[in-house]
Amino acid sequence: MSFESNNASAAKTARAADAMNELRLATARKRLAESSSEEDALEGLREIVANLLGCEEIGLFRSEGSGERFSLRWSFGADLKNYDLLKALGEAGWKKVMQGQWQVPAADGERWGGGKAQAFIPIRAAGRTVGILAILRLLPQKTAFDAHDLELFKLLSEEAAKPLFGASHSAALGTNRAEGRS
Q1: Residue 16 CB contacts under 8 Å (≥ 6 apart), including other chains
Q2: What HEC string does 82-125 produce?
Q3: How many CA atoms lie within 13 A of 20 on its CB side?
Q4: How many other C-beta atoms lie within 10 A of the C-beta of residue 178?
Q5: What region does 47 belong to: left with phi over 0, alpha with psi -120 to 50, or beta?
Q6: Which of 68, 109, 118, 177 has the least C-beta neighbours within 10 A?
Q7: Could you tell me the CA-to-CA distances from 121 to 13, 99, 148 in Å, in that order?
Q8: 22 in helix, strand or coil?
Q9: Residue range 122-158, pLDDT digits in tens
């Protein structure tokens, strides 16, 4: 094979991967937008994270009061009743998540239930973090996140608050759940 042929093949492969990622993002966006209830949105989140990110343990934490305290709203694959977000993130990571930046801890990140904390995704509404999605363990065949996964992190961060928390966070969302539905 010639050099030009290899470059053309690599470009074709990259275009196919980008097209597949666009489909993946559209699927996630549609699943969240079509959620009929908070419980349905949680099931949608589980589907997105398990099938599109390759994760088998997740937790969703919801802000309380002024937004500086978070409590477990829901988990899948792990018992997270006593999970300490602040300890898992560390003070610097906590500040970044509160500012809307997702965190992918170093390889020595805290272990929980036999798996390492993999990522923390802030769920944002009206410029503040109203929830935190903790990705705790990846499927064995998934070894790391890639650039396409980070795009899905961004989508979840920006678009998941309303379907996941609905009217309970209407002040942060600037509208109530019914107004946002067609």
Answers
A1: none
A2: CCCHHHHHHHHHHHHHHCCCCECCCCCCCEECCEECCEEEEEEE
A3: 10
A4: 9
A5: alpha
A6: 68
A7: 29, 11, 15
A8: helix
A9: 999 988 999 999 998 888 888 888 889 999 999 999 9
In 3D, which of 16, 136, 48 has the Cα closest to residue 88? 136
- CA 86 – CA 159 distance, rounded (Å): 24
Q: How much is the pTM?
A: 0.81
Residue 40: predicted pLDDT: 94
Residue 128, amino acid: R
pLDDT confidence band for 30 (50 / 70 / 90): very high
The answer as to CATH 2.60.40.1180 being correct for domain 3-170 is no
CA distance from start to end of the chain: 54
Strand partners, 119: 135
**Rounded distance, CA 112 to CA 19, Å?**
35
Q: Which are the contacts of 18, defined by CB distance < 8 A and separation ≥ 6? A: none
Q: Is 70 exceeded by the pLDDT of residue 62? A: yes
The whole-number pLDDT of residue 118 equals 81
CA-to-CA distance for 77 and 91, rounded, in angstroms? Answer: 26
Q: What pLDDT is recorded for position 130?
A: 93
Mean pLDDT, the chain, integer? 82
Q: How far apart are CA 145 and CA 102, in angstroms?
A: 12
